[in-house]
Amino acid sequence: MHWSQETAEQKLAALKMEDMPIICIAPEKVKLSPDWFTRYKNLCRQFMESLTDSTEEIAFMNLSQDEFMGLITGKRMPANLSIRFRIPLVFGGGLELDNMFMCSTFPHSHRLDRFIIEQYGNEKIWLPNPVKKIYVPAHTASGGDGGNATADRLSQLAAQLAAERGME
Fold first, then answer.
1. Cα–Cα nearest to 77, from 37, 130, 41
2. Domain range summary for the chain, segments of one domain joined by +
3. Within 13 Å and on the Cβ side, how many CA atoms surround 7?
4. How much is the pTM?
């Protein structure tokens, strides 16, 4: 059975992720190279280091300063965060930074797994494809008129780290 875009969007809405953009692909069965996991781990570190431009989204993840610094320096992934592929490797996706995004493991990554698994066997499948590197649901990302001190603090830390690395 092939889902329509409307069906896929309804399924995501039922999972409380109605703001998640999706793409339709024809999955290709791909055999992974023996060194895929080593390359994946290196790519995850690079992805985490690339998040210095995503401090606004990271601020909504309620990380401590130590967790934030561990994340953007590529040293450690905070608990309850997952790096996902936009197009999974087994469906023909590449080991590339542009093919990755991050979200909360629970509930978002678990819900996305369910969404993809329900389409198993379809000739075409719908996959999550958030606009930014980090998926934060719209209902979580809205702030009040007073600003966000955490976002300001994390932006300052990221700017300082970028300056130290010569990435201004």
1. 41
2. 5-164
3. 12
4. 0.82
